[in-house]
Amino acid sequence: MQHEKLASFEDAVLPHLDAAHNLARWLTRNDSDADDVVQEAYLRAFKFFGGFHGTDGRSWLLAIVRNTCYTWMQRNRSPQFSIPLDDELEEIESEDLDPEALLQRSADTQMVRRALEELPVEYREVLVLRELEEMSYKEIAGITDLPLGTVMSRLARGRKRLQEALTNHMRAEVLSELPKSTGTDSRLRRW
Amino acid sequence: MSCQRAQELIHGYVDGELDPANNLEVERHIQECNVCASTYRSQTMLRLSLKDKSLYYPASEKLKKRIQSSVRKEAKSEASPRPAGWRWLTVGASLALILLIGVGTWRILPRVIRPSSDELLAQEVVSNHVRSLLLGGSHLTDVLSSDQHTVKPWFDGKVDFAPQVKDFAGQDFRLYGGRLEYLNNRSVATLIYQRRLHYINLYIWPAEQSGSTGEITLQRQGYNLIHWTSSGMNYWAISDLNNVELHEFARLVQQQ
How many independent structural domains does chain A possess? Predict the structure, then answer.
């Protein structure tokens, strides 16, 4: 009996270890914490595996990973565990963005990584699930226990914020290069 | 389609989540409107910049092995639950003895059986506690209030008894809310208290016999459990809080 449970668990859940780790790493933003959370999540998953009747082992596991992360964050870093209400966030205007400039510099993954890491966790998680894990709105809604509409609006706001953060980082980078340049750098005109 | 509408739908559009009719309309709009076309381009580029493989954190080989072995270990320990097995053996042996002696069998039997029914209940309490915290705390309370005069009446008509509800904020056990649970084959009132970042679930229901028993302390899966009976009510408290503080809490409840 136990043997069967272990075998089907290893079939259905173990293959999604990378996805589990990726999500945990983005939520905890720390290597060793991510490892610990993933291990805890797997043990929980195994314990509750009797309740899993679906076919989508990845979504089922990721929901547990996410919950384990949140419990962990609550336990370890309470000050960061504050979710601002969507509606009270400032609308960020992204109209003045220069997409061409963004494209020119989009090769800088470090900058993207930092900007995504600095996003509030509720935007970070939907973006990671959507862009890195390539999940549908419906799957994300299932994992995060959020209504579909909220998933959509968090993605939209998350992207806006990310774009804003990237623009700021780029602007800072360009400005820091300013003293060395002759002042005729064509990039400067854009800003 | 208006720009405002197109801007609302543009994320669904880049994600391929729109229905065909809206999809077509957004597509048309983008061809005609420079502003929305620019938004569309910048969204696409943003998404591209997130597609970089180095942003994905796969699990290390080491973690994979660690998890495989810990799950297998867990499977083994589930397959042979030693403590429970031994307890059943003891119960079996005691029963045989009692039958042999044939003295006061029916008076003693409940006392012998008690540990195992307690054990089942303890498991039920642990699962319930874990489940209440698992869902990001969203299932922790049915009524969220630190006001005892809100929580107590909330149970009216939901359970067939009136649990004592008291806030111990002064002693740093803040009443957090109430919840209805099904435990031990009946509806049970649950009070949630908070101390620092720890949550305590306190389950209350009428005992079969009136009177009181002393505290019994258990530890299961890293949680501390204390249960007792007083004034004809069963109380089970569970938390990841340390034993000393949970005892302090139990005493407060008993003194109320």
Answer: 2
A137 and A107 in one domain? yes
Q: Which residues of A touch B49 (CB under 8 A)?
A: 102, 106, 109, 112, 166
Mutate to test the interface with A, among B56, B77, B123, B129 (most CBs of A within 10 A): B56
> Is A153 in the same domain as A184?
yes
User: What one-letter code names the amino acid at A25?
Assistant: R
A54 is in which domain, residue-wise? 2-80
Angle in degrees, CA A39, A162, A181, rounded to 5: 120
Is residue A83 helix, strand or coil? coil
Torsion on CA atoms B149, B154, B156, B159, rounded to nearest 10: -120
Tens digits of residue pLDDT in B106-136: 555 555 544 567 788 888 899 889 888 875 5
Residue in chain A nearest B57 by alpha carbon: A22
pTM above 0.80, yes or no: no
Asked whether the beta carbons of B203 and B125 are under 8 A apart, the reply is yes
Residues in B lying within 8 Å of A, measured between beta carbons: 11-12, 15, 17, 35, 38-39, 41-43, 45-52, 54-60, 63-64, 66-68, 70-72, 74-76, 78-79, 133-138, 197
**pLDDT tens digits, one per residue of A108-147:** 788 899 999 999 999 999 999 999 999 999 999 999 999 9
On the CB side of B19, CA atoms within 13 Å amount to 2
